[in-house]
Amino acid sequence: MVASGFVRSSLVACLGGRIVGHVGISHAWLDARQALVDVAVLSPLSVVPDAQRNGIGTALVGSAIEAARDVGAPALFLEGSPSYYGARGFEQAGRHGFEPASARTPGAAFQVALLDAHEDWMTGRLVYRDVWWSHDSAGLRDPDLADLERRFADLPD
Ligand SMILES: CC(C)(COP(=O)(O)OP(=O)(O)OC[C@H]1O[C@@H](n2cnc3c(N)ncnc32)[C@H](O)[C@@H]1OP(=O)(O)O)[C@@H](O)C(=O)NCCC(=O)NCCS
């Protein structure tokens, strides 16, 4: 299903007539010096427990990248595990000069997949839509934030 407005795509994985996974792609902005840029955010990603470790999450991430490319987004951002997403087309966003929407997003967790429409000047701060703030879903808060920072301490920002 592709929708306009905040939700750009909502994709499901089906197995034997049952929905076993879902990934959402929504709209955000990149506050670049030259212009405000429409970008995409991957969240949430989920696979039902009894169907995990069969490649469904990997397939959904790949489909999300394709969906973001199809709507012309120059970049797809997310907050998540660097080991999981790093092996599935994402890299640390800070390495391209991107800044997370919240200072409470550890650098290693802030990731991006650069897409065909990306140009070098398109860098700056990611700006989430209001729904992220009204649900207090940007970054993490203590004690979860402090715990993740300890776990990521050995990873480069
Ligand atoms: C993360 C999730 C979507 C992966 O789905 P999946 O269908 O099992 O993924 P795949 O089969 O493609 O990949 C499985 C691999 O991901 C790894 N993995 C799962 N969760 C992980 C995590 N949080 N961090 C790092 N790796 C993770 C598994 O260990 C497995 O590794 P292996 O291949 O070496 O055995 C699923 O575990 C899930 O729904 N988790 C709960 C919700 C969640 O954490 N969503 C992500 C939020 S950013």
Short description:
The protein has helices spanning 56-70, 82-86, 130-134, 144-151, and strands at residues 7-15, 18-31, 36-47, 75-79, 91-92, 110-114, 125-127. The protein has 157 residues and is α+β, with helices and mostly antiparallel strands.
Report on this model:
This protein is an alpha+beta fold and 157 residues long. It has a single domain (7-151), classed as Gcn5-related N-acetyltransferase (GNAT) (Aminopeptidase, 3-Layer(aba) Sandwich). 21% of the residues lie in helices and 32% in strands. It has 4 helices and 7 strands. Strands 1, 2, 3, 4, 5, 6 and 7 form a 7-stranded mixed beta sheet that branches. The protein is globular, with a radius of gyration of 15 Å. The protein starts with 6 loop residues before the first strand and ends in a 6-residue tail after the last helix. 32% of the residues are buried. Coenzyme A (COA) binds at residues 45-47, 52-58, 80-81, 83-84.
- First-to-last CA distance: 35 Å
Order of helices and strands: EEEHEHEEEHH
Query: Helix/strand-derived class?
Result: alpha+beta
Count helical runs: 4
Overall body shape: globular
